[in-house]
Amino acid sequence: MEQLYRENGKVVYHYLLSLCHDRFLAEDLTQETFLRAYRSLERFDGNCKLSTWLCQIAKHLYYQHLSRHKREIPAEPDETAFADSPQPEEKVLHRLELMDVLKEMQKLPGQMREVIYLRAVADLSFRDIGEILGRSENWARVNFYRGKETLIRAARAAKWEDGHE
After folding, report:
1. Mean pLDDT for each 10-residue chunk of the chain (165 residues)?
2. pTM for the complete prediction?
3. Alpha carbon distance 140, 131 (integer Å)
4. CA torsion, points 140, 46, 17, 20, in degrees to nearest 10?
């Protein structure tokens, strides 16, 4: 079980963090995910990667958490969940740019946003993303591309507005 956690813990944690934007909740749900996986390991049929199966369990646990607490997904992610750059000036600029991108990502449709988080944060393949979300690999690719293009257009528009104020 320890090896399973060492190999997949970060992927599950980052996936949950992308959903809930709360590092403490993501940590709790990650632990619960591995507990549930351990209890139902005999049901893993090998039709997908183990990390994909674990992320599916994590997603269901998160949705159960939401229904139990009747809570909406927060509009803005927990800033402390992301790494900082070493220099103070770079750190501030990086954080401002990151927050701008994350705010724009919150405007994307739910599953498109989820695809981008899974690809960028959890570094999952399009095939794995499709499996987790119950869609095809091609659907995941198309949604990632469309979301990325939307974010690029928003960034260009913001730069244009900054230069023409």
Report:
1. 81 85 90 88 79 86 84 48 48 61 77 83 84 90 88 74 53
2. 0.50
3. 9
4. 80
